[in-house]
Amino acid sequence: MDAAARARLIQTRLRSLYPAPEPALVHRNAYELLVATVLAAQCTDARVNTVTPEFFRRWPDPTTLAQAAIAEVEMVVHSTGFFRQKAKNLVAAANLLVTRHGGDIPASMAELTALPGVARKTANIVLSNALGIHEGIAVDTHVRRLAYRMGLTTSENPVIIEKDLMPLFARDSYGEINHLLVLFGRDVCKARSPRCHSCVLDDICPKIGV
Q1: What's the topology of domain 30-130?
Q2: The CATH number of domain 3-21+137-198, selected from 3.10.180.10, 3.30.300.20, 3.40.50.300, 1.10.1670.10
Q3: Alpha helices in the chain (DSSP H)
Q4: For helices 174-187 and 3-17, what crossing angle results, to 10°?
Q5: Distance (Å, rounded) from C-alpha 102 to C-alpha 90?
Q6: What spatial distance separates the first Cα and last Cα of the chain, rounded to whole Å?
Q7: How far apart are CA 71 and CA 51, in angstroms?
Q8: Using CA atoms, how far apart are residues 64 and 91, in angstroms rounded to an integer?
Q9: With the C-alpha atoms ordered 184, 186, 192, 193, is the resulting torsion angle positive or negative?
Q10: What's the CA gap between 33 and 125, in Å, rounded?
Q11: Rg (CA), the chain
Q12: Which of 146, 155, 157 is closest to 189 using CA atoms?
């Protein structure tokens, strides 16, 4: 079975498990999803969701965040790890959003990745989930692991993995496939002890590296 056929079966079977996948990061708009995704680097979504209510109470939009004291932001995001760099990037990004984009979240990959602390993964998540623009597939630790195990890529480089995955799925499902793989990676195809014996993909997965 080639990668394209396997990808179609993977998507179909995972859809039956997760019929309405959504981002685990709680958000109400593109700004909140951008902030939450930046905070989620090297941190669990659950932890970020405990931090963002206070964050958005203090800084509900880019304009207020651009005026924030970095030390105060550090205090609020401290528990997410790498808090100094995250606080610095978020305030700097807010300043660019205000000066370059009138306080709005830009709707292009190039403009989003020009913001401090925003790489392709974060930009893809914001574009797909908040703006309905399917530019690419967000490759996080789960997508990276599963794509390799399932034989959808031979690389462990996120940039190459994204390029390998994109032709295998319809553009309008780029956001969905990220959610499906993340959810499945958390529930079944775990890093250290994948539950292959109870996996709906057992018969089609090459289990590379397992």
Answers
A1: Endonuclease III; domain 1 (1.10.340)
A2: 1.10.1670.10
A3: 3-17, 30-39, 45-58, 62-66, 70-77, 83-101, 109-113, 120-130, 141-149, 158-165, 174-187
A4: 70
A5: 16
A6: 19
A7: 16
A8: 9
A9: negative
A10: 8
A11: 18
A12: 146
User: What global pTM score does this model have?
Assistant: 0.93
Catalytic residues: 121, 140
Helix (H, G, I), strand (E, B) or coil at 58: helix
pLDDT tens-digit profile of 63-95? 999 999 999 999 999 999 999 999 999 999 999
Is the separation of the CB atoms in 7 and 168 below 8 Å? Answer: yes
Q: Name which of 106, 124, 111, 126 is nearest 169 in CA terms.
A: 124
Q: Which residue has the tokens 């990676």?
A: 185
User: CA–CA separation, 72 vs 177, rounded Å?
Assistant: 37
- pLDDT score at 1: 86
